Fold:
Amino acid sequence: MHPVTAPPIEDGAVLVNASGRIAAVDHHSRVPVPPDCEALEFPDHVLVPGLINCHTHLELTRLGGGVQHDEPEFVKWIRRIRELKDATTAAAFYEAAVAGVRDCWTRGVTCIAETGSTGAVMRALHDLAGRGIVYQEVFGPDPAKREASMLELETAVQELNGLTTPQLRLGVSPHAPYTVSAPLYQAVTAFAKGERLPLAVHLAESQEETALVRDGAGPFADALRARGIAIAAQRCSPVSYLMRLGVLQRGTLCIHCVQLDPSDVRLLREGAASVAHCPRSNNAHRHGRAPLRLLLEAGVPVGLGTDSVISVGDLDLWKDAEAAGFAADDALRMLTIEGARALSWDSEIGSLEVGKAADLAVLTAQPPNRPAILTVVSGRIVHQISGS
Structure:
């Protein structure tokens, strides 16, 4: 057993109480077994905290019938994804979300951080009693349409807010600098603060994004001007731009963060923001490598995410840990407690400790790429291989 925040325990055991919380963690001979307790034993397997996927798009799981990451130009790829989303029904998004959640569970993932615009993953997690944070996306690069975008966001939040539970949180996500105007960023940030909702942003992902913000140039700028939207060079990095707008604050989840320099890292640290690092997605879209070591040395909370299956083909977090340069215990730590810290949820999940939620997984073999034979969310079994 690997509690993560304590040394491994050979032949370890976890006692889960009726409230779905951890009541004891120790060698199995020292963990009490109440008379009405169901005892599950898994010899020759590994018991760990449930894994945490810090960035997903599960509503896109089956979009277009398969993987779409073979388009080499990022701007064209985004346009293609938007076309496919426009052609997808609400029922199909929900089915994709359910399939994505269940796929995560089969891999030992007990918590996801989803960004999406349809609400399908929020509904799926609610119906399946899963754990996660769902950031409702909002778009609007035209400053003149800020109010319409805000109305759409506020309506969606009102509809989804009734689905929240202690293990299912709702947040908001002004998508990215190439899809959100400065006034909309500020309006969403103020709304999030007023409603006490966490924020997530796609940030510093591509060279095209940097060219748009810094120079007012490149394919994103060309596409926006073609729509009659005025673009001005900000003469700063995307991170500096969002810091200037007040978007980067304690707990803001910054997704990707590939195009960073040391001053950007300092800003992320000063703003108390966190990062969702998606190395395989960054590689698939030819964005480059994020300065992961620099972020970690600066003390910026970093978790790992798969991004969508239309970017990388699967939801295997162990592959992302490997792509980021982590192995064995370091990989497990990044996929558990560090992911929990990136989501500001480390007081509740991410390690096997008395009082925390009983989110855990029983895994086969050794990392990487080990599937789960049992996955538990808050004391409730959500995945178990028959006969195990």
Observations:
- Residues 49-351 form a domain with the TIM Barrel fold (CATH 3.20.20.140).
- Residues 90-106 form the longest helix (17 residues).
